[in-house]
């Protein structure tokens, strides 16, 4: 990992990540910029395309920042939805933690 | 909101959609190949079909369905929109409009015509060249024909309705049977690009894709290329787009129906791939992810918020909700507008979002208001204007020094009322576009019947004029257009021989000119055959055989009642009632019509109409103790006659010499029977007026009181028609003043008795 100086933060995703949550999620992620991030998606029961967009944009930014961005746990619904919409999150699954 | 109200809204929207449809088709006809134009046309038919389905308007649904299917072929580039194809489509648009009208107002449609068009459309959809042969459908159907997922409305339409009309049951289901036996299901490639509106309206791409995945075996690629970094993104904008390969036996329609409610808010491309190829994504090197079949986890919605549940139900109960959707469109547009405005603040607004804002704000700026309410408002403002004038008058009468603050206040009040009046009149002002569009249809139909090739060019469709004028404009215009195509334009052979293009051009333009609207109708036909017109006029005793007429005077003969140069009486025109009726209706609107014609080059009809029938700028005059208003537009100049300029002519006639030319002097008081003997011209004022045919008359009145804008009150509606009088108004002193029908008075001065005049409204 590139920068170990910054603290590792974690973020637990809300159960419902629908259209209305996209702004909130975006805000939460913005606040966590500059840190390694571990995301717990185990509680997610429903996730919409907008929130996946925000998460993927986050992954992109984190990569640019040379910080880690990983999902620690994911729910079945979260996995299925990402598979359904063709978004591959395999590379974002935390392996070394 | 009860069902009837929703239905009414549906029909209002139908009108808009039909207008959209027609203008789109005309743009295509002009060579516009913008996919958005095709989409707009498709959308129009599609939404009419959707709404009609909800109200069980089966005729409409079945026709729209066939129409839509053919348009879809154009949309997916399977059918080239050639002139011939568009001809069929324009006719179909006309039939669709007829069906809509019938659904709303009752009546019947030309069943043979719609059945014929359905056959032609079907043939086009199958790739046959128009005009369609009535051959049975070949088996080699396009993928489109695989199987219709929405047979319900079509099947329902096949049942005879009250009028015993059995629509041709056109269904693609017939083709599906054999193909279903095949083991390999047809594969399709779907490119799905949501616009931001999709999300703004509460649609969820994941749900659409989920529904899509249920149609068959699917693999997907998500294109994230446009996804910006986190800090530059708008969390509510659409960045993802998808390419989906799906194998399904449910057909293209089933795929489209998944996107039915999101269709306008996304770009959707549907390509039928060869079976066995598309599904594994060999066509392009995009990494396709297979989508798991078991998506049951996504169906559990334990804590789903209200909005999502609603949205879910929308998809499930699609058919039932169509009506409500239609009805809520207006509200939705407004909501979108505000959302879009909010979204605009974000610097990262994508192009799609901008598009959204434009569309939404265009739609959000209008409201529908009952015409009655506007009319009531206009009436009230009219009263206000009168009342204000009365107030001013009584203040002036009681306060002769004229410098008091009351006077200042009154002046401001006067300005305000005038402004209010102008703004209120602007509410009822509408572009002439709908009327012009109706003319396009007339041209098509007449061209068809006469076998001529005609192109209608319109200009200035957005010129606005009061709705009352627009409503009365359609009839005379239709007459004139018919005449222009039927008589004006030559047959194709003749045109060729004259070195013109085979296609005749009829041009309709509208523009504002000095407070009036001027509508010009020109054709590039043969022009008026003056010899023939002259001969005809002589035969009909309209003119003396040796009359010396200018070209212009001969041209204007065609406006005479009972005049027609058509050798044969045709179905279209040539009954000899055309142009004089036109002239009369134009005059009834307070307008004037003129013709100029160049042999071999065509004719130009110019109509000049008032912008409104509610107010009028007039000159207030006194005649034999009565107050009259003379429409200002009729007056050329006013003069104080000199005794030396007055010349007697015959027993009672008098002429006035103005700048070395003589002009008949007409005593208005005498004509209207206000006085028994002619007044002395030297004691009065002469108003030089322009009358029909361009001739001038000097109207004698006793005195001029002033010039002001008056509110027109119809005499017919409130009392009864009075010969020589166009309407009435109420003056500042509370008295009723009559508005002079200048043309009627001039005609009366020529010896035609007044009571035969049929001029109905304000004279111009």
Automatic annotation (TrEMBL), chain A:
This is STAS domain-containing protein. It comes from Rhizobium herbae. Gene3D superfamilies: STAS domain. InterPro entries: MlaB-like_STAS, STAS_dom_sf. Residues 11-87 form the MlaB-like STAS domain. Pfam families: STAS_2 (PF13466).
From TrEMBL, chain B:
Keywords: ATP-binding, Chemotaxis, Kinase, Nucleotide-binding, Phosphoprotein, Transferase, Two-component regulatory system. The lineage of its organism: Bacteria, Pseudomonadati, Pseudomonadota, Alphaproteobacteria, Hyphomicrobiales. Its EC number is 2.7.13.3. It catalyses: ATP + protein L-histidine = ADP + protein N-phospho-L-histidine. The keyword Phosphoprotein applies. Gene3D superfamilies: Histidine kinase CheA-like, homodimeric domain (1.10.287.560), Histidine kinase-like ATPase, C-terminal domain (3.30.565.10), HPT domain (1.20.120.160), SH3 Domains (2.30.30.40). InterPro entries: Bact_Chemotaxis_CheA, CheA-like_dim, CheA-like_homodim_sf, CheW-like_dom_sf, CheW-lke_dom, HATPase_C_sf, HATPase_dom, His_kinase_dom. The modification Phosphohistidine is found at residue 46. This is Chemotaxis protein CheA. Residues 362-613 form the Histidine kinase domain. Residues 128-155 are annotated as: Disordered. Signal peptide: none annotated. The keyword ATP-binding applies. Pfam families: CheW (PF01584), H-kinase_dim (PF02895), HATPase_c (PF02518), Hpt (PF01627). Residues 1-103 form the HPt domain.
């Amino acid at each position: 990992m590139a920068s170990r100086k910054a603290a590792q933060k974690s973020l637990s995703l809300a159960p419902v990540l629908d259209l209305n949550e996209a702004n909130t999620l975006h805000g939460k992620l913005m606040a966590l910029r500059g840190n390694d991030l571990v995301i717990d998606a185990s509680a997610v029961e429903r996730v919409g395309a907008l929130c996946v967009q925000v998460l993927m944009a986050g992954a992109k930014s984190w990569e640019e920042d040379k910080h880690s961005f990983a999902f620690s746990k994911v729910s079945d619904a979260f996995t299925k939805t990402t598979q359904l919409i063709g978004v591959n999150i395999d590379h974002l699954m935390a392996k070394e933690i | 909101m009860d069902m009837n109200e929703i239905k009414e809204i549906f029909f209002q929207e139908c009108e808009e959609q039909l207008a959209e449809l027609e203008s789109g088709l005309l743009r295509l006809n002009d060579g516009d190949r913008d996919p958005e134009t095709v989409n707009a046309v498709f959308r129009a038919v599609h939404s009419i079909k959707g709404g009609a389905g909800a109200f069980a308007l089966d005729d409409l649904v079945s026709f729209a369905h066939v129409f839509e299917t053919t348009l879809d072929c154009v949309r997916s580039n399977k059918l080239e929109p050639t002139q011939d194809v568009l001809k069929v489509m324009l006719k179909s648009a006309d039939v669709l409009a007829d069906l809509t009208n019938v659904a709303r107002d009752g009546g019947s449609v030309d069943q043979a015509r719609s059945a014929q068009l359905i056959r032609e459309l079907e043939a086009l959809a199958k790739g046959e060249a128009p005009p369609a042969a009535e051959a049975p459908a070949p088996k080699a159907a396009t993928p489109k024909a695989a199987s219709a997922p929405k047979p319900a409305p079509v099947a329902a339409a096949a049942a005879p309705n009250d009028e015993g009309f059995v629509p041709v049951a056109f269904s693609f289901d017939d083709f599906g049977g054999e193909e279903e036996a095949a083991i390999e299901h047809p594969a399709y490639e779907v490119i799905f690009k949501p616009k931001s509106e999709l999300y703004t309206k509460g649609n969820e791409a994941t749900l659409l894709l989920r529904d899509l995945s249920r149609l068959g075996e699917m693999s997907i690629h998500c294109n994230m290329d446009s996804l910006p970094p986190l800090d530059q993104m708008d969390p509510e904008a659409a960045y993802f787009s998808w390419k989906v390969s799906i194998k399904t036996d449910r057909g293209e329609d089933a795929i489209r129906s998944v996107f039915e409610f999101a269709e306008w808010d996304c770009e959707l491309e549907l390509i039928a791939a060869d079976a066995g190829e598309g599904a594994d994504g060999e066509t392009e090197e995009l990494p396709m992810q297979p989508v798991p079949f078991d998506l049951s986890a996504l169906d559990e919605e334990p804590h789903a918020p209200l909005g999502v549940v609603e949205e879910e139900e929308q998809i499930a109960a699609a058919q039932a909700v169509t009506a409500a959707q239609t009805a809520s469109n207006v509200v939705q547009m407004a909501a979108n507008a505000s959302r879009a405005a909010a979204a605009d603040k974000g610097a990262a607004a994508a192009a799609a979002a901008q598009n959204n804002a434009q569309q939404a704000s265009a739609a959000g700026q209008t409201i529908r208001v009952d015409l009655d309410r506007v009319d009531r408002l206009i009436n009230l403002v009219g009263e206000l204007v009168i009342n204000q004038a009365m107030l001013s008058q009584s203040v002036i009468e009681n306060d002769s020094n004229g410098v008091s603050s009351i006077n200042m206040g009154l002046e401001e009040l006067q300005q305000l009322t005038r402004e209010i009046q102008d703004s209120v009149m602007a509410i009822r002002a509408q572009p002439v576009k709908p009327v012009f569009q109706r003319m396009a249809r007339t041209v098509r139909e007449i061209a068809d019947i006469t076998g001529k090739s005609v192109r209608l060019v319109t200009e200035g469709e957005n010129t606005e004029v009061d709705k009352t004028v627009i409503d009365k404009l359609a009839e005379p215009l239709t007459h004139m257009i018919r005449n222009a195509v039927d008589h004006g334009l030559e047959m194709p052979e003749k045109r060729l021989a004259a070195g013109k293009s085979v296609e005749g051009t009829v041009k309709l333009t509208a523009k504002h000119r000095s407070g009036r609207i001027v509508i010009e109708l020109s054709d590039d036909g043969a022009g008026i055959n003056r010899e023939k017109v002259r001969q005809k006029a002589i035969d009909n005793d309209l003119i003396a055989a040796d009359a010396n007429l200018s070209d212009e005077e001969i041209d204007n003969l065609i406006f005479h009642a009972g005049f027609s140069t058509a050798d044969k009486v045709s179905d279209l025109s040539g009954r000899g009632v055309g142009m004089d009726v036109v002239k009369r209706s134009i005059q009834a609107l307070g307008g004037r019509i003129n013709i100029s014609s160049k042999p071999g080059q065509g004719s130009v009809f110019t109509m000049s109409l008032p912008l409104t029938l509610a107010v009028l700028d007039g000159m207030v005059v006194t005649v034999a103790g009565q107050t009259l208003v003379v429409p200002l537009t009729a007056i050329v100049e006013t003069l104080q006659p000199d005794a030396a300029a007055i010349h007697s002519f015959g027993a009672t006639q008098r002429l006035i010499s103005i700048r070395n030319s003589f002009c008949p002097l007409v005593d208005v008081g005498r004509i209207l029977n206000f006085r028994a003997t002619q007044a002395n011209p030297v004691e009065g004022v002469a108003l030089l007026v322009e009358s029909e045919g361009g001739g001038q008359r000097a109207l004698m009145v006793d005195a001029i009181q002033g010039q002001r804008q008056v509110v027109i009150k119809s005499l017919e509606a409130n009392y009864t028609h009075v010969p020589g009088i166009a309407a009435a108004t109420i003056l500042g002193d509370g008295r009723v003043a009559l508005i002079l029908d200048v043309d009627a008075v001039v005609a009366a001065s020529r010896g035609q008795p007044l009571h035969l005049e049929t001029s109905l409204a304000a004279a111009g």
